[in-house]
Amino acid sequence: CWQLAAVAWIIGLVESVVQTPSTLRLPFCPHHQVDDFVCEVPALIRLSCGDTTYNEIQMAVASVFILVVPLSLILVSYGAIARAVLRINSAKGRRKAFGTCSSHLIVVTLFYSSVIAVYLQPKNPYARERGKFFGLFYAVGTPSLNPLIYTLRNKDVKRAFRRLLGKEVDPS
């Protein structure tokens, strides 16, 4: 665990050390303001009055290493898990195994789809507005939904949720 955490911290540190100076050296127009919920590299690149080609290439390359590679590894591991689960003889066992994986897969899908929408978006006005929504969603929405998604796997929570919605639940 500590090695995985160390790799994540080191990659984040290297990424910030590489991207921050080149982004802050961009010429910014004095009348522009950050039109986003968070002040990240894509929002700062959109503020620049100069050529941002280098920064966009740098961000695309970094996105491959920080987004696409981990997502690919996750999807490959889920492929191996799916193959193993499909070898389970009982339908009940397969359903239980897929149910266990489904929560994580939902969270991974929500997070990576919104992050990719922010960092790998084209430069146009529609993408800019959509990027604000997805930026807010991956920064606030996914971490907020994460406990809810995992909590709904608990039978007692499901029962209480159904009661809250006014649906009677069999007490067994």
Automatic annotation (TrEMBL):
Alphabetically sorted, this entry's keywords are: Cell membrane, Membrane, Receptor, Sensory transduction, Signal, Transducer, Transmembrane, Transmembrane helix
Q: Where is the G-protein coupled receptors family 1 profile domain?
A: 1-150
- A GO biological-process term: G protein-coupled receptor signaling pathway
Q: Which residues cross the membrane?
A: 60-86, 98-121, 133-152
Where in or outside the cell is it found? Cell membrane
**Care to name a GO molecular-function term for this sequence?**
olfactory receptor activity
Q: How does it sit in the membrane?
A: Multi-pass membrane protein
**Protein name per Swiss-Prot or TrEMBL:** G-protein coupled receptors family 1 profile domain-containing protein
Signal peptide boundaries = 1-16
Origin species, per record, is: Myodes glareolus
Any single GO CC term annotated in Swiss-Prot or TrEMBL for this entry? plasma membrane
What InterPro entries has UniProt attached to this entry?
GPCR_Rhodpsn_7TM, Olfact_rcpt
Q: Which Pfam families match?
A: 7tm_4
Gene3D superfamilies registered for this protein in UniProt:
Rhodopsin 7-helix transmembrane proteins
Can you tell me which residues the record assigns to a coiled coil? none
Q: Does the keyword Transmembrane helix apply?
A: yes
